[in-house]
Design a protein that fits this description.
The structure is a single chain. With 297 residues, the chain is an alpha+beta fold. The chain folds into 3 domains: 63 residues, Alpha-Beta Plaits, CATH 3.30.70; 119 residues, 3-Layer(aba) Sandwich (NADH Oxidase); 43 residues, no CATH class. It is 40% helix and 15% strand. A 4-stranded antiparallel β-sheet has the order 6-7-9-8, with helices on both faces. Strands 1-2-5 form a 3-stranded antiparallel β-sheet, with no helix packed on it. α5 packs across α10, α6 crosses α7 and α11 packs across α12. The N and C termini lie far apart (53 Å).
Length: 297
């Protein structure tokens, strides 16, 4: 009788298995079973297993080990009474603001790495873990990105404001895109006015975290948003502030120049961008929110 079960993805010390069947109950793909009191793996295990790690984490005697990670032993889970209480977490959520005013103070690399750890442990659909990060701490790169976006928006505004320009735009934009651009023309002009006054509307003079991933795998919008949400909350605990950059996300995906500046792989799409730094603003009150629209069934 074999003392171990092993394939390309997993190693199990079955000799010390207690037959508690926790792995059987928790495996989302139903890949574990017991036959005549002995643990078995489904024949499709290597093809189907998404390496989520739940089998390792739930095993009370630590006899299951996935091979993709380097850690010999996993860190023990914290007890629930060590988690932040609901009211503490609520205060963190309520007091988080989108920060657009930052001090002239660089974020230490070790703090950025802490935020990236939060992103690393954020959930991804199907446990694909398919997102990557580009961290921009060089101010010169941030300035170059903002200038490039400003130039593109200026050219668009100029084209929209004359008939010949609109005809040229029809060659590269759809009717719907031109219609939307015309509707947003007053807003675009207002943004350019702010930029003339020295306001970096695109990046807010902060350091950047650009979150992207292989577009052929899918799930990039939701996976990057989950990571970004956790990173923004974690930033508050480190004395930092952050703000989502929807315009930057759009322009990176549209501009080869910006993609090259950021060294985003050609097969990647950017799902979320954040600017962050040390806040140079203090809020005295929590803004009101509209009531939630909830349907109970």
């Amino acid at each position: 009788m074999n003392k171990t079960i092993e394939n390309s993805k997993i190693y199990i010390d079955v000799e010390n298995c207690t037959k508690c069947q926790e792995c059987v109950k928790d495996c989302v793909a139903n890949l574990f079973s017991f036959d005549q009191g002995r643990l078995r793996l489904d024949d499709s295990f290597e093809e189907v297993c998404i390496e989520c790690g739940h089998c390792e984490a739930v095993c009370p005697v630590n006899v299951i080990q996935l091979k993709f990670h380097e850690e010999v032993e996993l860190v023990l889970s914290s007890k629930r009474d060590e988690f932040p209480k609901y009211n503490s977490f609520l205060q963190l959520v309520l007091n988080r603001r989108s920060i657009r005013q930052f001090k002239e103070k660089a974020i230490p690399k070790d703090l950025m790495e802490k935020l990236l750890t939060i992103g690393r442990y954020s959930p991804t659909g199907g446990n694909v873990q398919n997102i990557s990060y580009t961290v921009v701490q060089e101010k010169e790169i941030v300035v170059s990105i903002s200038k490039h976006i400003t130039n593109k928006v200026t050219k668009l505004v100029n084209a929209l404001e004359n008939p010949q320009g609109r005809e040229l735009l029809k060659k590269r934009l759809s009717d719907e895109e031109i219609k939307l651009a015309l509707e947003n023309l007053p807003k675009s002009k207002r943004k350019l006015k702010m930029i003339e006054q020295g306001i970096d509307f695109w990046c807010w003079n902060g350091e950047l975290i650009v979150i992207h991933g292989d577009k052929t795998i899918g799930g990039i919008p939701s996976n990057t948003a989950l990571a970004a949400a956790n990173i923004m909350l974690a930033a508050e605990t480190l004395g930092l502030g952050a703000c989502s950059l929807g315009y930057l996300t759009y322009f990176i995906n549209k501009s080869r120049t910006i993609r090259e500046l950021l060294k985003v792989p050609t097969n990647h799409t950017v799902g979320y961008c954040l600017t962050m730094g040390y806040p140079d603003v203090k809020y005295k009150r929590i803004p009101a929110r509209k009531h939630s629209r909830v349907q109970w069934l």
